[in-house]
From TrEMBL:
Coiled coil: none
Alphabetic keyword roster: Membrane, Transmembrane, Transmembrane helix
Claim: Iron is one of the keywords in the record: no
UniProt-recorded name of the protein: Lysylphosphatidylglycerol synthetase
Transmembrane helix keyword on record: yes
Membrane-spanning segments: 12-33, 53-72, 128-155, 167-185, 217-234, 246-269, 289-313
């Protein structure tokens, strides 16, 4: 479609697209912080200003935790791509944060797949899509593993007013919705962007075991870091809760929030609603929980996105794809 378009015109439109992505990301962040129906931004600011725990030492420690959180995500992506191509840590940093910014307002950050693929030649697109899917699956598997343990401890310890029959019916419906497509895919020649199920199976089985092992290890380390960061914020707000009890609720919250499709920009609202419900059992104020969730979002999504905006603006398509 763009074959007859002059090169300078293509470049102009490409720059315009990059600016639109950055401006759009900034606007969504600003909009979410100032129009959050769950937590008024002025109330949030006043609550933080009155909290004496926000010393320079604590703020630096929280930022360091966020840096390590993304450090291991960047390391994981570098490690996964090394399966077929060696890239530097700085390359992985640019691809990870740039794709975060560009995919901020896409459902479940689905835009991350396309953005990361743009850093490579067209011949590598399918590999990048498959590896990105693998990396996200590893993180999701970690969330599910810790989440199921947390759910078991949570529902064993706290008595909740839940209609288990309705929950069972919903579970059966979800199971049917998930299992039938899987069975159908196995018996068909279904493919995504030309990648058939059999081709994907061959690709994933060709990946060495140490790639899986280290990728999963990085995912677990990331999970432990940002879940501890959540716990540290709870303690900063003066909540008297021991680590095991806190992690029981935190892991349950991350599991429930992760299985509900949402826009990344609205992730703070979803986690806030789930967290308020779960922590209400132990009589913790909504304001404290919503403030912690908002700070987690700012530290681990907003700040990396601001840095990623720089990479979006300086991004250039590989020569063979222009």
């Amino acid at each position: 479609m763009f074959g007859a378009v002059p090169y300078k015109t293509k470049q102009f439109f490409f720059v315009l697209i990059k600016l639109s992505i950055v401006v759009g990301a900034f606007y969504f962040i600003y909009h979410k912080l100032t129009t959050n129906h769950e937590l008024d931004f002025q109330v949030f600011g006043q609550f933080l200003s009155k909290n004496d725990a926000f010393t320079a030492k604590n703020i630096v420690f929280l930022v360091i935790l966020s840096i390590f959180n993304w450090f291991f995500e960047i390391l994981k992506w570098q490690h996964l791509v090394s399966f077929f191509k060696k890239i530097s840590f700085l390359n992985s940093l640019e691809q990870s944060l740039g794709s975060l910014t560009a995919s901020l307002f896409t459902p479940n950050r689905i835009g991350e797949y396309g953005v990361k693929a743009m850093y490579y030649s067209r011949s590598d697109t399918k590999k990048i899509l498959a590896l990105n899917l693998l990396g996200n699956f590893m993180q999701m598997a970690t969330t599910v593993l810790f989440g199921f343990l947390g759910c078991y401890l949570y529902f064993s310890k706290y008595s909740l007013d839940i209609e288990y029959y309705k929950v069972f019916r919903i579970g059966v419906v979800i199971f049917i919705i998930v299992i039938f497509p899987i069975i159908g895919l196995k018996k068909s020649n279904f493919s995504i962007r030309g990648i058939s199920m059999s081709t994907a199976k061959i690709f994933y089985t060709s990946i060495p075991w140490y790639i899986y092992f280290k990728g999963l290890l990085f995912s677990i380390i990331r999970y432990l870091i940002f879940s501890f960061q959540f716990y540290f914020l709870l303690k900063m707000f003066g909540l008297t809760l021991d680590y095991v009890d806190a992690m029981t609720i935190i892991t349950t919250m991350y599991l429930l929030a992760s299985i509900i499709p949402t826009l990344a920009i609205f992730d703070v609202v979803l986690k806030g609603s789930v967290a308020v419900y779960l922590f209400s059992v132990i009589k913790i104020s909504n304001l404290s929980i919503l403030s912690v969730v908002t700070l987690m979002w700012i530290l681990n999504v907003v700040l990396p996105s601001l840095l990623g905006a720089m990479y979006v603006l300086k991004f250039k398509l590989p020569k063979q794809t222009v």
